[in-house]
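Hello,

I think I submitted the adenosine-5'-diphosphate job twice by accident. Can you confirm which output corresponds to this input? Input:
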Amino acid sequence: MDTTAVRNTFKEKFGAEGILYFSPGRVNLIGEHTDYNGGCVLPGAIDKGILAEIKPNGTDKVRAYSLDLQDYAEFGLNEEDKPKASWAHYIFGVCREMQKRGAKLSGFDTVFSGDVPLGAGLSSSAALESTFGFALNEIYNCGFDKKELVLIGQKTEHNYCGVNCGIMDQFASIFGKEGNLIRLDCSTMEYEYVPFHPQGYKVVLVDSVTKHELVDSPYNKRRQSCERAAAAIAVNHPQVKLLGDADLEMLEEVKGKISEEDYMRATYAIQENQRLVDTCEALKKGDYETVGKNIYATHHGMSKLYEVSTIELDFLNDIAKECGVTGSRIMGGGFGGCTINLVPEDKYDHFIETAVAKFKEKFGKEPKIYPVKISDGARRLN
Ligand code: ADP
Ligand code: MG
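Support: Only one job matched these inputs. Its output is below.
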């Protein structure tokens, strides 16, 4: 990221120089709807994030300038000082969550800017939280460990931004490591780095620029289907608490006892947990063909069994297959957002040109293209 604009603006506004910090957004290679089924996810930090220059200002006020939104906010650090601008809630929330855990903060000046597309599913919000969590922890010597910083980001979303998120995004942003994905159990925060060196391939997101208005609550319905299937299996297999503990044979035993819909949802959930394990094995061997097959299988499962895809996302998936892309799938919970694609370098240009042209022809709008590299997590830059 280009630090010049942030540095110049900081100097202009505050007449001084501060410390530069950066935290990334993230992708998730595989493992969708696995977190609440007792499985793992496989995110990685990307080379796009939020850059902030920060300097304590000797007052009890935070003075923050968003370079991208060209908006300024000034606020105190007590609970009743919540600023109006929604972007500032992330910074205020991080400060509050740190203080609740005993941190001694004071006023500071900051200018920040980012290149994670907002609301595209790459978690610009986690990048923002992690940048300030990581920075303030260092500047004020708070002594939080990385897992605490993850929780501070998550609780910021819960308590100050109205988003009831898990921990994957913040975890990837804080723990990210170049050349590695993170196999993460979201319920225990146990994790393992898995090597990711896709030589000869590029990773690219294609944004369907569509979000479907959801009339009922499809996520809760999926979750309940999985819980019912797990409960049915547990009658004969009491060790099964969540579908992550079950296999397809166990599911076959209860096939007639649960609804067809619950059976389909559970099939996906069990397969997806196993696919993630299998994908980690393939990554350790450098077998990217198998990785790609699993990524396609996830898309198929999300589309046909879990039924969380859209016409636009299925269309992008078909184009990827036609263009010889190694793996392609919906990234995120579904119903819109991006596909993530593992593309052989020599097919990259053709794929992007074809996807953009065909998508535009069919839906009358251009998909957005975000090439990404798996990179390091939160860090100080100077
Ligand atoms: P995402 O999927 O990208 O995390 P969210 O809706 O959770 O989408 O978070 C996006 C919000 O985070 C924005 O509306 C804004 O308030 C804040 N934000 C993210 N990036 C920036 C940025 N570069 N400048 C200002 N605010 C940002
Ligand atoms: Mg977010």
